[in-house]
Specification:
This protein has about 400 residues and is an alpha/beta fold. The chain is built from 14 helices and 12 strands. α12 packs across α14. The mean pLDDT is about 95. Bound molecules: ligand LCS.
């Protein structure tokens, strides 16, 4: 796919098969676990890598490859790998780049399990991890040790909406010989392409904006270079967290409307954030598009738009937040984000409950914080629903 095409055009066309079989317009679902070889020599050549061609769906599948090609085009990367879930993408990059005795420095406010898998599971194998407020690049610099192999950032961060300067994080990581890995889930490549700012590897939960319909889980790893791709792919294939073709087809279908969905949800979020700032029951609003967001200028520099995630505090703290969550009628009380429907949740007791309370609060995931994932409904309906729920406080 030509790099010069607009991102909205890429979302609709990237990943199309080079040659259609029957003139089909949609990429077919190649629901086959294995692929026949024309000869024994051909099979051996595919296994040795001398010849291209599919072998077995855990190692590659034409529908999954179509999704991977679409993601590569959208991120302007070298190649992508689709994974069973976002966590499969994240744990695969950790497995690839962290050996016993290695250290990783990361954003403190990340999706809870991205952090807990290091603190609870990778620690069993001697991997060390430190999480800092990466919105200040000096904190990353101070967290670096001689054995730091990876700097892992999430921007915008889940759920605090903190913004990390990707370019500065890349400078710090590279000055110490470490890789910069960016979780780009909250922005999607429609709003942010971390390779343009120096990242080496991008990971996604495709479950969110890229799929966009709250009906499939999935993940992806995209690399900037061939060398990085060649390191990660065998680890993914051996550990087996790859994607199923039917799952890939659904996500590719979702990507076709990425531009329309992100534009609409973002427009709704921008209006809601401004409206909520002036609501008497709302104590604070954190949205990167608001001029009072502490990293508003960095967001302006590295993002094409401010996205569709907002977090707020309300009067009476957690009790007030529960009143809102229990009284919304159009918003759904559920975790996840990035679907066409608007969701609301409480990170401290839900998505980030696995992070110990002191670590969670140090990262800004306060008990009073309520997270809103804005969807594509009509703005007035969303506003009216929040107002009637807020007025119950
Ligand atoms: N990265 C980010 C930024 C996420 O928000 C999530 C899931 C993941 C990775 C993991 O992806 P998964 O394995 O679920 O596809 N975030 C969720 C959330 O905020 N609520 O529910 C899931």
């Amino acid at each position: 796919m030509k790099n010069s095409l607009d991102k909205a055009t890429k979302a609709i066309h990237a990943g199309e098969l080079a040659e259609s079989i029957f003139g089909e317009v949609s990429v077919p679902i190649f629901q086959s676990s294995t692929f026949s070889f024309p000869s024994a020599d051909d099979g051996a050549a595919r296994f040795s890598g001398k010849k291209s061609g599919f072998i077995y769906t855990r190692m590659g599948n034409p529908t999954t490859k179509a999704l991977e090609d679409a993601l590569t085009a959208l991120e302007n990367g070298f190649a992508a790998m689709a994974t069973a879930t976002g966590m499969a993408a994240i744990t695969t990059v950790y497995l690839t780049f962290l050996n016993q005795g290695d250290h990783i420095a990361g954003t403190d406010s990340v999706y809870g399990p991205s952090r807990m898998v290091l603190e609870k599971e990778f620690s069993r194998f001697g991997v060390q991890a430190d999480f800092v407020d990466s919105t200040n690049p000096e904190n990353i610099e101070n967290a670096i040790r001689p054995n730091t192999k990876v700097v892992y950032i999430e921007t915008p961060a889940n759920p605090t909406m903190g913004i990390t300067d990707i370019q500065k994080a890349a400078q710090v990581a590279h000055a110490h010989g470490a890789l910069l890995i960016v979780d780009n889930t909250f922005a999607s490549p429609y709003l942010q392409r971390p390779f343009e700012h120096g990242a080496d590897v991008v990971v996604h939960s495709l479950t969110k904006f890229l799929n966009g319909h709250s009906d499939v889980v999935g993940g992806a790893i995209i690399t900037k270079t061939e060398a990085l791709y060649k390191k990660i792919r065998p680890v993914l294939n051996l550990f087996g967290g790859t994607m199923d073709p039917h799952q890939a087809w659904l996500i590719l279908r979702g990507i076709r409307t990425l531009a329309l969905r992100v534009e609409k949800a973002q427009e709704n979020a921008g209006k809601l954030a401004k409206f909520l700032q002036n609501h008497p029951k709302v104590t604070w609003v954190r949205y990167p598009g608001l001029p009072d967001h502490p990293q508003h200028e960095i967001a302006q520099k590295q993002m094409d738009g401010f996205g569709a995630m907002i977090c707020i505090g309300v009067k009476n703290g957690l009790t007030g937040g529960k009143t809102v969550m229990d009284n919304v009628k159009l918003f759904t009380l559920a975790v996840s984000l990035g679907g066409v429907e608007s969701l609301i949740e409480h990170p401290a007791s839900m998505t980030h409950a696995s992070v110990p309370k002191e670590e969670r609060e140090a990262a800004g995931v306060l008990d009073e914080l309520v997270r809103i994932a804005v969807g594509c409904e009509a703005y007035e309906d969303l506003r009216n629903d929040l107002v009637q729920a807020l007025n119950k406080i």
